[in-house]
């Protein structure tokens, strides 16, 4: 009996491996997105800005992080789910001319606890025709079961009514990157958007192999940027001998790393293959650095307040939105209305 069980197990593992090989081959043959370094340096500023706790400066786009390559951006919607320490915004940029959606990642002061909790916890995705697709429960519920999703979808609808069928770019860092990917899939599958692009920074794995395959088919214009020994892209763990059950990245990765010795250190970029798990990119290193997780392209990817989820806001700005009984905040503006710059304090 014992020998029979071992034979069954070996057979199953071989079938898993064979299926994974066919999937890899299919991904490699598919057209992969082109990496645009200039676009990456713009989007990383949005992913950094969404961490800010001063909602007045963020909503009026007058913050220190709002005066670089993102200058001229106009926020239409800023949503803060205080209950779950989540934050996101939707707005329209001049360059690139697109609707930008950005999600905040995990506060760095709770990052270690979040990393320690970043393991299995898989959850079936409630989308039509997606059998066997599993995603991390925390990422899925953070987007679908909070105030975030309805606010995002409403803002996208209003933006498209005013600006027409404009391109949509979704971005985020860390957990914000995971939510960005789930949002993009939702926009594509459930909202039938045809022109959705994604770029994330330091994103963890989100789901199983079936999810990675389906995501790549639905949202092929996706780039995942990883940085040197950043720990988060290595989690949840990937087990090559259980390809259908383990967590797995989708393509395409761009790995930022340092080369040289001593004081002669240079930054380099490697455009990875179409497997999602290129062994010559971030998987070629140990992935044990939190400091590498908190900086991308020289930009800080962390909050500006030592306290987790602290909010600062001018009372006049709150009049532009609503605050529900649970303390969640939704600030909105009509793009047709001239925007008055307000002071950051009462």
Automatic annotation (TrEMBL):
Tagged with keyword Hydrolase: yes
GO terms of molecular function: hydrolase activity
Keyword Hydrolase carried by entry: yes
Endpoints of the signal sequence: 1-21
Any one biological process term the GO annotation gives: lipid metabolic process
The Fungal lipase-type domain, residue ranges: 100-238
One Pfam family this sequence matches: Lipase_3
Keywords: Hydrolase, Signal
Protein name (database record): Fungal lipase-type domain-containing protein
Organism in which the protein naturally occurs: Lupinus luteus
């Amino acid at each position: 009996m014992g020998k029979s069980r071992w034979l069954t197990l070996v057979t199953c593992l071989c079938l898993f491996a064979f299926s994974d090989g066919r999937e890899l081959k299919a991904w490699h043959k598919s057209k992969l997105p082109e990496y645009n370094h200039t676009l990456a340096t713009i989007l990383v500023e949005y992913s950094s800005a969404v961490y800010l706790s001063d909602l007045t400066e963020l909503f009026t786009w007058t913050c220190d992080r709002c005066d670089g390559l993102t200058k001229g951006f106009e926020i239409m919607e800023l949503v803060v789910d205080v209950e779950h320490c989540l934050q996101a915004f939707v707005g329209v940029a001049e360059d690139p001319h697109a609707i930008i959606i950005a999600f905040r990642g995990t506060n760095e002061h709770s990052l270690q606890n979040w990393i320690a909790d970043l393991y299995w916890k898989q959850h079936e995705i409630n989308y039509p025709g997606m059998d066997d697709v599993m995603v991390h429960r925390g990422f899925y519920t953070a987007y679908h079961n909070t105030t975030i999703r309805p606010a995002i979808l409403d803002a996208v609808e209003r933006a498209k009514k005013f600006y027409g069928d404009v391109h949509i770019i979704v971005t985020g860092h860390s957990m914000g990157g995971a939510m960005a990917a789930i949002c993009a899939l939702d926009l594509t599958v459930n909202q039938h958007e045809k022109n959705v692009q994604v770029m994330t920074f330091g994103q963890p794995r989100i789901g199983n192999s079936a999810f990675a395959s389906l995501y790549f088919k639905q949202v092929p214009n996706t780039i995942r940027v990883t940085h040197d020994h950043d720990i988060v892209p290595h989690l949840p763990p990937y087990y090559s001998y259980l390809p259908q059950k383990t967590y797995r990245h989708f393509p395409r990765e761009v790995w930022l790393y340092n080369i040289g010795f001593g004081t002669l250190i240079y930054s380099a970029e490697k455009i990875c293959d179409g497997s999602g798990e290129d062994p010559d990119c971030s998987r070629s290193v140990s992935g044990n650095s939190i400091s590498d997780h908190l900086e991308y392209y020289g930009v800080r990817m962390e909050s500006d307040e030592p306290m987790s989820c602290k909010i600062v806001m001018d009372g006049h700005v709150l009049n532009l939105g609503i605050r529900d009984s649970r303390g969640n905040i939704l600030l909105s503006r009509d793009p047709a209305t001239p925007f008055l710059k307000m002071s950051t304090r009462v």
